[in-house]
Amino acid sequence: MSRRCARRARRLRTVVLTAVVAILVVLGGGCGGSVPRQHDVDAALKAASAALVAHDVTAWGRALPTEGTSARRAARQIYAGLTGFKWRSISAEAVAVDGVAGRYLVTFRGEHPGSGVTHDVCRRVLDFATRKGVLTLVGDHTAAARRADYCLAFSHPVVMVRKHLILIGDRGQQWLMKIFAATDGQGRRVVIRLHLNPKLFWVTHRTIVYVCRTAAQASRVAGGKPDTGDGAFAGRGAVCAFARSAFHWRHDAARVMRHELTHVYASGIGEGRHTVGLLVEGLAVVAEGRHSYARLRSELAHGNRVLPLEKTLAQEDVWSGRTHRQVVLAYEEGGALVLYIEKRWSMKRLWKFAAAVADSNLKPVGIEQATGRTLGITWDQLYAGWKEYVRTLR
Ligand SMILES: [Zn+2]
User: Fold this and answer.
1) CA of 6 to the centre of ligand 1 (A)
2) CATH classification code of 149-265
3) Whole-angstrom distance, CA of residue 307 vs CA of residue 304
């Protein structure tokens, strides 16, 4: 059940990378030789990216000549890792690392044919120098644990393309990829259920589904997302599923995909000044379909003391510091709140309410104002109505 929203994953990724770069800057020395200009690094990476798309190892070597063992290893790993896939396009961005001349945080972004979306596919901290007028890769200062992140997390990649999904996994995992490939139609159910505009999702975009053997592999695919142990999570334009049993996935893949595709399709709902985690997850729970609210009914019968609704609504993160039981309860609270607002008002009004709460200060007065402005009642009235409604749920 540990499915975390895209924004949180992105934030964590940024923190991890900043920390990696900071540590490396402290430890690292200069790379010696004459210092290259940003313009030259950009030009070399542009040629290198074109070589990756063309699967042209000669052009790759010409674009990025290397000096020294670590540079050669990095060039070999990036080329081998990324040419395991076909690409519509690849680009690279190099951001100079403060304090070390010639050192750059390099992010390759790629578009799988038919996906319509560009993803981070490889990220390294690389040292460049100019040798006899030629830009040369002279070192790799990426932390060892982060060298096989993003697409390099797959050692023998297999790609399956369906109408709405692109599934990526390692050879030997095709059985699991096929289970997810069979969920291809589930996105339509999400679109219909949430009243989304199909044009935004079905015409140009296929969602990428990374199918991983282990949670550790999934963590690498997400660029160092902390290991959460089980399940699935979603990021921008992509779903990552991992490390559950064959039995589990055969029975649960479609429901999990409805949940995660909601995070992909409805990313932005409940996000403004703040992220309203309860509504982000609540919406995904509703899109799953039939759901039990037994735990929530029991919580309300005991006075809603474990996770008081107003307090949970005001928290950006519904997972941190919570037990699995409490997270499940939070998901049920969110699901029931979404269902109640949809039933009494409409899904459109729910989006407005979510936006108003996200843009509020998340204090009781802010939530009161957001409720009044978008639903036309007080928070106490909303809470009382919601509690009544929960009694009717199974
Ligand atoms: Zn979720």
Assistant:
1) 9
2) 3.30.2010.30
3) 6
